[in-house]
Amino acid sequence: MDYYFKSLKKFTFIFLFFYILGCSHQVTISEDSYVIKNISIIDPINGLQSTKSVIITDNIITKIIDNDNELIANNNTIIDASGKYLIPGLWDAHIHFSFDTDLAPYMPGLFLAHGVTSVRDTGGPIDLVVKMKDSSLMDPLNNPNVYIAGPLIDGTPNVYNNSSPSFPLLSIENNDIIDIESNVLGIVDREVDLLKAYEMLTENQFLAIMRIAKKANLKVTGHIPLSMTLFSAIDSGLNGIEHLRNFALSIASNSDELYRERIELLKNPDDLPGSDLRSLIHSKQRMKALDSIDYDKFEEASNLLASKNVWQTPTLFLYRNSAQKIFKDLSFINELNKLPNQIKQKWIKEIADTDTIIDKNSLRYSKWLEEATGKLHKKNVPFMAGTDTPIGYLIPGRSLHIELEVMVESGFSNLEAIKSATINPAKFFELEKKEGRIKDGYKADLVILNSNPLDNISNTQDIYGVIKNGEFLSRESLDSLMYKN
Ligand SMILES: [Zn+2]
Q1: pLDDT tens digit sequence for 155-168
Q2: Do both 77 and 114 map to the same domain?
């Protein structure tokens, strides 16, 4: 990838103390720093603080001072950010670099161009995701920080088995516990940052993953395996659930009956491929579950998820987009100009080939996910913003901002939505003491906005510049990371 952009010239200045009118203003001035002046800071924990100067040395926020302090060094690089707002660099906590290998090389640029400075890859072939992570470690200015799960760890038949372009090879199939042990240890050896458990696992296979993860000190996220319930998966130590997948099946008044039916279906008498077997089970059970949600069980599940700190990444826009077919709107299609031409043409063709019929069940399910997200959030269940890009025609980077809008519609305050894309994913990876805030000593991955996202969450899209690893990328540099078709 040959992305290239100009960073502002950096200058050197020195350490001094400065006094004004008997009131001492200690001003830290270090070598090779940026000073962002006159900016309003939005720290995810402390909220809004106006007219500050933020000093960045190397890739760290070294000091935040009141604006009335004067910096007397001559050679500092000053960004006058009057009227602007600073938020931490954003995370997309659910992406797949390997869903479309033609798009993968362009994804890092698209993320940075949209202020997404960290991503959590939730499933793909180990060699490809390790390569994306290594590129990021070697060239942190041109890549978001990349955290990887390795492949989806699935049972048999596995769902993402390369049977069609909609089901590329994202997973590994495991027939038994011996398979699980050798495969998962192999994944752990490649220094992944988490593990992802998938839907077709047996309970014993799932438990084996949890044991290995515990020893390796790795968190496990995933879809609740169809062979289990939400309650048994959480009791076994599952740390995160993606898309609230199979949540509804466990909190319906008929959940025991659904469970028995599922176990029979999982015997797969017709020898269906994994993706078909999974769809069959979802189509037989999902709406039955929604018809009979038991709100006492919902409450019980919420309390369990909150007390065990089980992270939710609901990917709400993925479902809304596919249910309402928003991708067919002209305004949606115009955004595809940001993609390389061959990808854009492919997506436009696929979208044109899709009918306009709205499926009532999909619509109902997507609305239910938004409602459930709002309720779980109220119960203090922890959330991260994630999108599943590039699945469902979701543009890397841009889709994260739309996810934040949907989270706000679902009951998050604007600041809570920002938390879900900054400090919360940092907490998931136990990085919250050094990333995800605007505070002395924190990593300088930041986004400068032209307008206040606490007034309107869509203002996270009004990006003036991004600071990645302590380097400023102007609007012009960010635009150069996207295509102009
Ligand atoms: Zn996914």
Answers
A1: 999 999 998 888 98
A2: no
